[in-house]
Design goal:
Radius of gyration: 19 Å
Helix content: 40-55%
CATH superfamily: NAD(P)-binding Rossmann-like Domain
Shape: globular
Distance between the termini: 36 Å
Structural class: alpha/beta
Strand order of the largest sheet: 3-2-1-4-5-8-12
Number of domains: 1
CATH class: Alpha Beta
Oligomer: single chain
Length: 354
């Protein structure tokens, strides 16, 4: 049976990828050393998810390996080289704030770790499809230059504007403030493209908006909806950073993203780039998310407002997924904001029980 290698296999997207492809009969090699706990403390630990995956899928094999360790990564690829059909590289340091504290580790994980994975794929399984989870933060603060209109609970863009359907891949990623995290992801993003265009590997880059779902180990520095729900349900105080809480995020359920991976896997395009988020189908401001969370959970959220926004944070981000849909027209969304929030609420409540 063909093998799928998944880095960050116990994180949100990694674990969704594991379950999606394991259920389709693939053998899964998961790589995850729970570095997320080092980044975010106990809130960010994915050990619970590792145990869940190992119990749920008999065709899942776990390796606690650091993606920066080329020797160990090469050994794994060599071991499974004949059977590798797909690599989904979802491991990352995902926080703006954390990256500024330790740029060397951030760049090492996000950029150098990606290069290690690409080289292993080129050496041992050049026929395999390589999917990289990039981020909309590669566009830096350029989206903040858009002519936004302030409304009661959100910022919006005029219907007549070029990006009224959402921001597409034509937006420049150059000459802007990215945050240290954004810069390290740019380096990885460009390198994945280059291995497709220069070495003709079947690489695809997915620039995600807010990725979310019930398997997210949300923490204050990362995991917007998951952490918001955790605060609302448990009574923990939440902090809104800047923009009056009217900043808008599109949110895509982890299943919808991984299903997009599957469509790409079946008909890959070398070095292609896709903006991939909730788009106009699933987007919400922080104020709107709080209102929805309180309505669906029956709990009140206690929060403080901090007037200073996070450096490089977007005021308004909605992805235009038209390009991906034009290449893969059978792909569709399965989860909107309400259904996704309901799942996260149930997941948080179940974790409290046990």
């Amino acid at each position: 049976m063909a093998t799928v290698i998944v880095t960050g296999s116990c994180g949100l997207i990694g674990s969704e990828t594991v379950s999606f492809f394991a259920d389709k009969g693939f053998d899964i090699v998961g790589i995850d050393n729970n570095m997320r706990r080092n980044f975010f403390g106990s809130d960010g630990s994915v050990l619970w998810n590792r145990k869940r995956l190992q119990k749920l899928h008999k065709n899942y094999r776990h390796y606690s390996v650091d993606i920066r360790d080329s020797g160990k990564i090469n050994s794994l690829f060599k071991k499974y080289s004949k059977d590798i059909a797909l690599i989904v590289h979802a491991a990352a340091q995902p926080s703006h704030d954390w990256a500024a504290r330790d740029p060397e580790v951030d760049f090492g994980v996000n950029a150098q770790g990606t290069l290690v994975m690409l080289e292993a794929a080129r050496k041992f399984s050049p026929w395999a499809v390589f999917i990289f989870t990039s981020t909309n933060k590669v566009y830096g603060d350029t989206p903040n230059r858009l002519p936004l209109v302030e409304k009661e609970k959100r910022f919006e863009i005029a219907d007549s504007h070029q990006y009224s359907k959402g921001i597409d891949e034509s937006m420049s990623i150059d000459n802007c403030l990215h945050s240290v995290f954004g810069a390290s992801k740019v380096a990885a993003d460009i390198m994945v493209q280059e291995y497709g265009k220069y070495f003709h590997l079947r690489t695809g880059v997915f620039r995600g908006g807010c990725l979310t779902g019930p398997a997210h180990s949300g923490a204050e520095l990362h995991g917007f909806l998951s952490y918001l729900v955790k605060c609302c349900v448990t009574g923990r105080k939440y902090k809104i950073y800047g923009y009056k809480g009217k900043q808008v995020r599109d949110n895509i359920h982890s299943y919808d993203l991984v299903n997009a991976f599957y469509h790409y896997f079946q008909n890959p395009r070398c070095g292609e780039v896709y903006n991939m988020g909730g788009g106009r189908f699933a987007n919400v401001s922080i104020l709107e998310a709080i209102e929805l969370c309180e309505k669906l959970s029956g709990s009140r959220l206690s929060y403080d407002y901090v007037d200073t926004n996070r450096i490089g944070d977007h005021i308004w981000w909605v992805s235009d997924v038209s390009k991906f849909k034009s290449h893969y027209p059978s792909w569709q969304y399965a989860f909107n904001i309400e259904s996704t929030l309901s799942q996260i609420i149930d997941s948080v409540r179940n974790s409290i029980k046990y």
